[in-house]
Amino acid sequence: MLELTNEEATAPAVEREQRVTALELFFDLVFVFAITQVTGFLYHDPSWLKLVEALAILAVLWFAWTGYAWLGNTAGTDEGAIRVVLLSAMGPLLIASLAVPHAFGKDALAFGIAFFFVRGLHLTAYAVLARDDPALRVVVLRLAQTILPAAAALVLAGALPGAWRAACWAVALAIDYGGLILRGTENWQVEPAHFAERHGLIVIIALGESIVALGVGASSLGIHAGVVTGALLGIAVAAALWWAYFDVVAAVAERKLRAAASAERALIARDSYSYLHLPMVAGIVVFAFGVKTTLAHVDSHLHGPAAAALCGGIALYLLALSTLKRRNIGSFNYPRLVAAAALVALATAATKLPALLALALVAAVACGLIGYEVRRYAESRDRIRHQGA
């Protein structure tokens, strides 16, 4: 048996940082399926209305997922009751995911009921954690005052037709997202490493879904020059999106979160992660629909919704990243705003260009932005990435 030296015996214990657990990753697999369903929802019936509905579905699913991210961050474990609740919640989340293709149609009630159980189990787990923590009980009570009405509105949506259904969805989203701002983050606690890692992994998951959409779209058409070119251009865009986030943004965001005091840390976590990561994920999902449609029309032109998705998805992603920099550092990333504006302008022209050329131009803007940033910010990138500054 090894013996400790005097120095080792008296050295202070090193605090272990909380990491994402295997169960949390397992739980996220169901969310991957939900994202895939949203892309399919758009692909099989592309229209402006379906695009708006898809974004609403994604926003609802995102808020449920980010609630479980906060739960895992608070629990710090996947043992005991938390394990049971997470595994149990995967069932209704899967049912809600299965209902996504007709969430505004014949499966609206099934979606609403399943989603209500997803949110209810989230609150149940928080209540278990708060048994011996008065401050956390206050947080759980505040959460229940927004989560339950929002989830109930979606159940009601399933029982109502037409415009009333859409109104219920709007009310649910307003309660969820607006309530989080109005009720504040008092008594919330955040473990920075876990929170940043969990959200970084969900960006990876979304990027992975875009590659799956790319692969499915290509494999259904067979291998020929147009499909090969489109697939390579699509993976180039996905790589640029990965670079734009993980090169320095993810590290800076985590360090900002880590350096903040407790109260400010909760606000940063809410704004930078719970709010601003949604448009990033939404941008990737919308782009996935656009690139899948592009591969199916390499020899023709894109219709309006598909062209808007192909160009606007990347623009939304870059806008969110720039806004994240504004939230954390105090200034926008202007090259990314310029690239986003160029992509928005391209969306109109994309309906008149061959689909493959439109994708090539999107790839040129995305990859050109990364190339510019690598050269323009070489010194600061090196400092952030390798010197921890």
Entry summary:
With 389 residues, the chain is mostly helical. 81% of the residues lie in helices and 0% in strands.
Q: How would you characterize this protein structure?
A:
With 389 residues, this protein is mainly α. It is built from 16 helices and no strands. It has two domains: 19-189, no CATH class; 190-389, I/LWEQ domain. Helix content is 81%, strand content 0%. Helix 2 crosses helix 12 (277-296), helix 3 packs parallel to helix 7 (162-183) and helix 14 runs antiparallel to helix 15 (355-376). It is globular, with a radius of gyration of 22 Å. The relative contact order is 0.10. Residues 1-15 have low confidence and may be disordered.
In CATH terms, what is the architecture of the largest domain?
Answer: Up-down Bundle
Detail the poorly predicted runs: 1-15
- Distance, first to last CA: 41 Å
- Overall shape: it is globular
Mean pLDDT: 89
Major pleated sheet? none
CATH class designation of the largest domain: Mainly Alpha
Q: How do the SSEs run, as a string of H and E?
A: HHHHHHHHHHHHHHHH
CATH T-level topology of the largest domain: I/LWEQ domain
Helical run tally: 16
Strand content: under 5%
How are the SSEs ordered, and which strands pair?
Layout: H1 6-10, H2 22-43, H3 48-75, H4 80-99, H5 108-129, H6 134-159, H7 162-183, H8 192-219, H9 225-246, H10 249-259, H11 262-275, H12 277-296, H13 304-329, H14 334-350, H15 355-376, H16 378-386
Helix pairs in contact: 2-3, 2-4, 2-8, 2-12, 3-5, 3-7, 4-5, 5-6, 6-7, 8-9, 8-10, 8-12, 9-12, 9-15, 10-11, 10-13, 12-13, 13-14, 13-15, 14-15
